[in-house]
Amino acid sequence: MSTILVTGASGQLGQLVLKALENSPHTVIAASREPSKLNTSFATRKADFDQPDTLVETFAGVDRVLIISTDALAVPGQRLKQHTAAIEAAKIVGVQHLVYTSLPNAEPGNKISFAPDHYGTEQAIKASGIAHTILRNNWYIENLMMSLPHALESGQFYTSAPEGRVAYVARQDAARAAAAALSDAPGGTFTVTGPEALTYGDVVALANDITGKSVNLIPLTDEQFGGGLKAAGLPDFVADMLTSAETAIRAGQLDGVTDTLQTLTGQAPKTVREVLTALLKAK
């Protein structure tokens, strides 16, 4: 059996990965910047990617590490610096396998503002010589809840990518894929998606059907979309990131559907309808 460590274990994805590993025969360690906040039966360790000198101790004695991409998006380059520090520490202590959560089509040319962080991390992992599994997770279905509740109240859903499609994946399914990758250590790069690629029109139609409400799709330019987000009070870097995602959706960079979940976990992924029904009924 191997010793597995999950970074970012207090985050939304990290918590779900720990849950998926509850019956694992492997030794599991949950790591977080603030381990005291972890509510888990697993052993815990402190993992602060902004303190690279401490990461060698964090990863000591560990065979497999899941690096969940951090949320350090406000300062350009910070996230890649964090990830690189983790990879270097893993190499120093002799970690045998790295699993990393990336983005579909992360190569240069991806329109999403933080794609270079992911591609740079992928390249650093490959250059490290450590065996690895790269999981290119598509947009989480749960992210739709950033805009759907307001749209259901106002009757209007704004987008600058009305025709683009996204192969949304449930966060829980992405967690199951990560747990499987940690447990079985398959090598290579996998794009993790749901079973279908939907337009925003499809999503709005589902929300209307689930709730009985009537929301209309309002197409905007990127400038109008980003300006509206900033006017609503979102920080510029967040508004720019969300606008860049709309651009990527229009370019078809998130529309590929794969069978990765079935391959890695032996189970079919959840549909957008299944997840949205649970989320919207809970509101």
Automatic annotation (TrEMBL):
Residue stretches making up the NmrA-like domain: 2-223
Protein name: NmrA-like domain-containing protein
InterPro entries: NAD(P)-bd_dom_sf, NmrA-like, NmrA-type_oxidoreductase
Taxonomic superkingdom: Bacteria
Origin species: Asticcacaulis excentricus (strain ATCC 15261 / DSM 4724 / KCTC 12464 / NCIMB 9791 / VKM B-1370 / CB 48)
